[in-house]
Amino acid sequence: MSVLPTARATRRIALVHSCWHRDIVASAVIDGLMHLQLDTGVPVFSVVLTPHHFHEHEQHRQFYFDHFVIKGREAAQACVRTLDALDAIRPTISV
Fold first, then answer.
1. Phi and psi of 15, rounded to 5°?
2. How far is CA 71 from the centre of its chain?
3. What mean pLDDT comes out for the span 8-17?
4. Phi, psi (degrees; rounded to nearest 5) at 13
5. Angle formed by the axes of helices 3-10 and 27-40, nearest 10°
6. Which of 22, 47, 79, 88 could form a disulfide with 14 if both were Cys (CB 3.0 to 4.6 A apart)?
7. Across-strand partners of 46?
8. Which domain holds residue 39?
9. 19: three-class secondary structure by DSSP
């Protein structure tokens, strides 16, 4: 898997997913991400952004586009804060 050397080198992975339908995100994807995290010892984040009531017209497309930009930024900031917190406590964790 090509992401493993990068994960081990950088010690960080963050994935942000944005999709229109909840059923697109399969449990196999999350299972694979969990295995990647366990195999590398590197935190892996998966964020799924889905609209609750989406209708295919311009007003909803624009609203959700703008909304996902905001929510995606918030998700990325949460990942960064979590990684910073892990870095702060990592020296105190014995493996």
1. -120, 130
2. 12
3. 55
4. -140, 135
5. 50
6. 79
7. 15
8. 3-92
9. coil
Q: pLDDT at residue 66 above 60?
A: yes
Q: Considering its fold, how many domains does the chain have in total?
A: 1
CATH number at residue 27: 3.40.50.960
Geometric angle at alpha carbon 88, from 35 and 68, rounded to 5° = 60
- pTM attached to this predicted model: 0.58
CA–CA dist 44, 57 (Å, integer): 34
Q: What is the DSSP string of 27-68?
A: HHHHHHHHHHHHHHT--EEEEEE--SS--SSHHHHHHHHHHH
Phi then psi for residue 40, to 5 deg, are -100, -20
